[in-house]
Amino acid sequence: MRILGICGSLRKDSWNRKLLNNMLAATADKGAETSLFDLASVPMFHPDVEAQGIPPEAESFRDAVSGADAVVIACPEYNGSMTATLKNAIEWLSRRGNLMTNKVFFIMGTGPGRSGCPRMHMHASYSIESEGGYVLHQPRVLLPNVANFMNNDGTITDPEVTALLDQAATALIDYTNCLTDTG
Ligand SMILES: Cc1cc2nc3c(=O)[nH]c(=O)nc-3n(C[C@H](O)[C@H](O)[C@H](O)COP(=O)(O)O)c2cc1C
After folding, report:
1. CATH architecture label of 2-180
2. pLDDT in tens, 41-60
3. What band does 10 get if pLDDT is binned at 50, 70 and 90?
4. Contacts of 25 (CB under 8 A, 6+ apart)
5. Omega prior to 139 cis, within 30 of 0
6. Is any atom of ligand 1 closer than 6 Å to the C-beta of 9?
7. Ligand 1 pocket, mutate which of 12, 78, 142, 152 (most atoms under 8 A from CB)
8. Any idea where the domains of the chain sit in the sequence?
9. Is residue 80 lining ligand 1, measured as CB closer than 6 Å?
10. Ligand 1 contacts CB of residue 84 (under 6 A)
């Protein structure tokens, strides 16, 4: 099974990218082939540009998603929603052959504050499900107060969070198998 990770934060020291790397490692431990795509290279969606043809950087992103059985997204909450980076990525996926249809997604989020990114999750799920994606909603990996469970180097320090990621990795692999092995 091929699992692609994308991070909705472009920040060099992004907590969400660190969380994503931990989740990808948990799926790799269960046999998944994992990769990361950096959204920093994806240009702003522009219908006039698209009319001339999808730019190569956006096409590379689309190819990465197309080649994956499931996509794991880690994204902070910005102003009560997902980041523009993630929404922009969704725009490119939706065009010229919508790549979200029948694709499995798992959306997670964290940050230093007291909120575990619930509005990011709600809005990102809504957009992806509107376009036919299958979002796995359980277990929830929406984690406030990141410094309480992760070091700056990305090491998880709370065994309950390690166990949660392990559980999420199993659930994602089972769900993806369910949806892709039915023939
Ligand atoms: C423009 C902007 C808006 C933000 N809005 C929210 C918000 O609505 N809710 C929240 O919990 N944190 C908010 N934050 C704080 C982010 O959660 C925090 O910067 C987080 O570390 C970003 O994730 P990252 O470490 O993966 O880059 C906001 C930060 C920025 C820069």
Report:
1. 3-Layer(aba) Sandwich (3.40)
2. 999 999 999 999 999 999 99
3. very high
4. 34
5. yes
6. yes
7. 78
8. 2-180
9. yes
10. no
